[in-house]
Amino acid sequence: MQFSITILGCSSAIPTKDRFPTAQVVTYGNEHFLLDCAEGTQIQLRKYRFSFQRISRIFISHMHADHFLGLPGLLSTMDLLGRTTPLYIYAPNEVIRFIESFKQLVYANFKFPIEYRIIQEKYEGLIWENEQLEIITFPVKHAVPCHGFLFKEKLQSRRMKKNAITDYLLSIEQIKLAKEGQDIELENGKILPNSSLTHAAPHPRSYAFVTDTAYYPEIINYIKGVDLLYHEATFESGLEARARQTFHSTAAQAGKIASLANVKKLLIGHYSVRYEDLDILLREAESVFDPTELALEGKKITLEYESRTEIA
Amino acid sequence: MQFSITILGCSSAIPTKDRFPTAQVVTYGNEHFLLDCAEGTQIQLRKYRFSFQRISRIFISHMHADHFLGLPGLLSTMDLLGRTTPLYIYAPNEVIRFIESFKQLVYANFKFPIEYRIIQEKYEGLIWENEQLEIITFPVKHAVPCHGFLFKEKLQSRRMKKNAITDYLLSIEQIKLAKEGQDIELENGKILPNSSLTHAAPHPRSYAFVTDTAYYPEIINYIKGVDLLYHEATFESGLEARARQTFHSTAAQAGKIASLANVKKLLIGHYSVRYEDLDILLREAESVFDPTELALEGKKITLEYESRTEIA
Q1: Burial, B239: exposed, middle or buried (Cβ in 10 Å; 0-12, 13-18, 19+)?
Q2: Is residue A121 one of the residues assigned to a domain?
Q3: CB-CB: which of B17, B73, B76 is closest to A46?
Q4: CA distance B284 to chain A (A)
Q5: Is the Cβ pair B46, A16 closer than 8 Å?
Q6: Per-residue pLDDT reduced to its tens digit, A225-247
Q7: B173-196: per-residue pLDDT in tens?
Q8: pTM score, two decimals?
Q9: Does A118 reach chain B within 8 Å, measured CB to CB?
């Protein structure tokens, strides 16, 4: 199952000539989830060739202009392209007023339903799941109510080893028990230890998206051990006071959170317009946590399954 | 005085990977005028290195999403960049509701005033002028109230020929009269014909912006003889029925208008997303009117003074 993250925008509030404000696509299997939807998101989706119709759910971290202004344009284009399937929007309450008043203004009569899923201030918990994946939200610390999102695969049942079924002519009931980890007793009384029949499912992969936030270790509980953490890094440490004042983080603080949460990899973004060259932010984060990568327009990171050592 | 037009976006409603929806900058001297403000306009302004603070006036042709959705982002960024000078917005009435409800939503308290200049349906006439330039609006034919804009230099007074003042030691009053085109009588009774003292000011330059509109020859009265006409050309002639139904024009119709109005050059744009290659539209317009150019992202057209033959 493909599990990847593509950066559509990595700038903070003011865009630059090569950095759009925040938007990302999380692709899981055939489905695209959109994380924030800044102005220009639909243009970036076209540029990086994402199907608009495969976007089922949009998650808005908070109601600052550089995180949601792409919604009316994207929705209008989805309608022009003939969408009829529902679009789910997870966001603070104000999103309803914003979209519905836009629709009124232009007399829009979209042919697809918009299903609002309002995230209340301070809400934490599961907001969506299917058989493979769950999405959890948690509050972060910003000037207005703001949430992070965790995409986490579920642990799948154990997988049958090659030939195990045909070697022992296992029944459907026996296969079910084996996948649950049980040993199987054959009709002749022989016990097959589970380890001879199955191996563990791959380790569940996970991605956490954290923007915009001041340094806030309370989130560690949610993001502990994730394969990839996106954490905003608007400023360098020399501007820590400015970061505190604007409820943003420095690159070193992003590294600190990644380190405390023991994540596998850190991805930083939401850069202040003052940084034409992003090396200073990368080096600063790396000095606290390694490996760190820069979020850059069009960058795609695929989460691979970890190879797992099976204890026989 | 510089008089130029820069294309920021030339797509119709659905953007493509290299075409943003409609926005243009008209630069006259030190001032920038923005024509329409689609989603992504602020990003394009950054890319093509326009100073946001030199944009004094924004003109919105009509309230379809692909012509105004860039306003909240642009205004927010102007505020973040410290703007304090007024911004004038010429647009249909709904623009007030759109911007003010956005400001409420994000608790924006812009440090610069927004001065709305509402263009009523069917209004035609002067909407702004200074000593050199006037801007005139006129209705076009679209599904909702929609206006074109004409930027027209004023005829300047005649210019003194080199050495005319010192050769005859003209007084300030005499210079004034000469610039008005009068002959000058010297104290010794000698009459200096005006043509020996002055030459005509350069021919006033003009630019007309016409989007979105069905074929509508009623506009010719306004755009007659302009140096450059931007006219939408959403479709090719084979889709004329579709153009009529959606109140858009074909490339041939744009050429026809340019020809009837006897303009000096035609610039087409607002291309349907179906045209990856724009040659078909260019060739079609050119078959009716020459010279025609394609509007393309980042293209800048400078209007030069015509050399004028003076009849002595």
Answers
A1: middle
A2: yes
A3: B17
A4: 26
A5: yes
A6: 999 999 999 999 999 999 999 99
A7: 999 999 999 999 998 899 999 999
A8: 0.91
A9: no
